[in-house]
Amino acid sequence: MAPIERIDSADPQLDLVLHALAHPVRRHLLELLVVGDAAAGDLAASAAVNHGISRSRASQHLAVLAEAGLVDVVVDGTWRWHRLSRLPGAIVHAWLTQLASPYARCERPSPE
């Protein structure tokens, strides 16, 4: 198994991704994309129904996801299709794996 590249906790890409993942509406939108590509209007409608926000606000959440690189946007005429991007998920996975590594943990005396 190849070693995982060490991710600096101050990495700006990691900050963008974690910020994007911090909001429940954006996590909902990502979960919808797990099954496949979706039109922006359909994603916004789902967010509006499930989270009580406007479609305009849902579009702003989609923009945050795109800025973080979590989704790719394909323009087809008047349609904007969104799909999951794999790379930013990999940076979060690598960083979390670092945290879970036994080498990353400090030995602490157990409280008595």
UniProtKB/TrEMBL annotation:
A Pfam family of this chain: HTH_20
Residue stretches making up the HTH arsR-type domain: 16-96
CDD domains, A to Z: HTH_ARSR (cd00090)
Keyword list, A-Z: DNA-binding, Transcription, Transcription regulation
Gene3D superfamilies in UniProt: Winged helix-like DNA-binding domain superfamily/Winged helix DNA-binding domain (1.10.10.10)
InterPro entries xrefs: ArsR-like_HTH (IPR011991), HTH_ArsR_DNA-bd_dom (IPR001845), HTH_MetalResp_TranReg (IPR051081), WH-like_DNA-bd_sf (IPR036388), WH_DNA-bd_sf (IPR036390)
GO molecular function: DNA binding; DNA-binding transcription factor activity
Protein name as it appears in the record: HTH arsR-type domain-containing protein
Organism: Demequina activiva
